Amino acid sequence: MVQEQKNERKKTILSGIQSSGDITVGHYAGAIRNWAALQHQYECFFMTADLHALTVRQEPVALRKRTLDVIAMYIACGIDPESSVLFVQSHVSAHAELAWILNCFTGVGECSRMTQFKEKSQQHNENVNVGLFAYPILMAADILLYQADLVPVGDDQKQHIELTRNLAERFNFHYSPTFTVPEPFIPPVGARIMSLQEPTKKMSKSDENQKNVIFLSDSDDVIAGKIRRAVTDSGTEISYSVEKRPGISNLITLYGVATGMSFAAIEEAFSGKTYSEFKSGTADAVINLIAPIRGRFTQLRSEPGELESLMKTGAEAAAARARRTLSKVYKKVGLTERPR
Ligand code: AQP
After folding, report:
1. Between β-strands 43-49 and 85-88, what pairing exists: parallel, antiparallel or unpaired?
2. Which of 147, 230, 233, 277 has the highest count of CB atoms within 10 angstroms of its CB?
């Protein structure tokens, strides 16, 4: 029995973050800390989604820098490149290639129904490009290339996973079993961090108002200042209620992410205290979380050779896996093999 379990194939996980801005404490809370917890139990592929970032106009020099920053930040947050495959999406050309094939299997109506497309095309109405429209198809390619069983996602991505599942099933039915049909994976400890100034809106790295966002690269003073100025609510009570007290509830969530304490324990610890005392406690907790991450990140970024070598190893491992799937797909759809 024990031997049987040992021989069981580890399930595969694929996830990533776009390099459309610097990594925030929201990404840490909702994604990266969970990846770090999963990496020894699953076979993990974590990428920087730089191709996805292009759906919104990017400044080339900044995009290049941020793509490396994201990889360094993954490692600084505890993703071990020895256990997980860490890579940059554009370094594995199979992503774009499979996306093209999947484009030919996706209805225009399926993409136009995507809530995120509707939201982003309003947000960037000066540049509603085909890439923004086809974003979920590239995401499906990302996932299906690695035969991922599970995809850790926030609620806002569930619709995209549903499309990925439909595409996998459609292809498997039309030809023969080719793709693993993935499941969304909602981590046991999830946390959605909201904007500091507009706590009913998600904290987003590309927010134009930097006061809304805590970046993992922010200095201690900047973190303290942003938390001090965070919008709170008209009451005085430090208790969690997203409906009644979105601002304070967001800070309670942040405090919980930083310390591992439950909401009830935080409420008890700050019972009778003022908002100002609570903000100061939250700032200390968040600084204690972020300062060592920022230290490791700075160290990694000061060793470009080391990071480059890690990216090369990651890209090779990812490309080898992706190529296996893509070759099968090319064969099944009837593309001729390239003469060797
Ligand atoms: N504020 C957040 N709280 C919790 N989880 C978050 N995630 C992002 N922001 C928060 C989680 O990070 C993963 C993907 O991030 P992404 O950058 O690829 O996409 P996004 O959700 O569009 O992030 P941003 O910061 O809002 O990007 P921009 O500003 O470029 O649009 C997901 O697991 C997501 O849940």
Report:
1. parallel
2. 230
Q: Answer whether residue 71 is part of any domain.
A: yes
Mean pLDDT, residues 102-128:
91
DSSP percent split of the chain into helix, strand, coil, nearest 5: 55, 10, 35
Q: What is the CATH number of the domain that holds 223?
A: 1.10.240.10
Contacts of 156 (CB under 8 A, 6+ apart): 115, 116, 202
For residues 218 and 105, state if they share a domain: no
* Residue 49 sits in the same domain as residue 85: yes
Is residue 328 among the annotated active site residues? no
Given a contact cutoff of 8 angstroms between Cβ atoms, the answer to whether 255 and 189 are in contact is no
Domain assignment of residue 205, yes or no: no
Catalytic residue among 11, 65, 202, 328: 202
Confidence of residue 7 (pLDDT cuts 50, 70, 90): low
Contact predicate 235/245, CB 8 Å: yes
Q: Which domain holds residue 72?
A: 2-190+303-333
In this prediction, residue 234 carries a pLDDT of: 84
Q: Note the pLDDT tens digit of each residue in 212-243.
A: 999 999 999 999 999 999 999 888 889 999 89
Over 60: is that where the pLDDT of 6 sits? no
Ramachandran region of residue 271, left (φ > 0), alpha (ψ -120 to 50) or beta? beta
CB of 114 shorter than 6 A to ligand 1: no
Position in ligand 1 atom list of the atom nearest CA 116: 22
For residue 19, give the nearest of 57, 48, 59, 41 by alpha carbon. Answer: 48
Cβ count near 3 (within 10 Å): 7
The burial class, CB within 10 Å (0-12 / 13-18 / 19+), for 9 is exposed
Is the Cβ atom of 203 under 6 angstroms away from ligand 1? yes
Average confidence score pLDDT of the chain: 93
- 294 shares its domain with 328: no
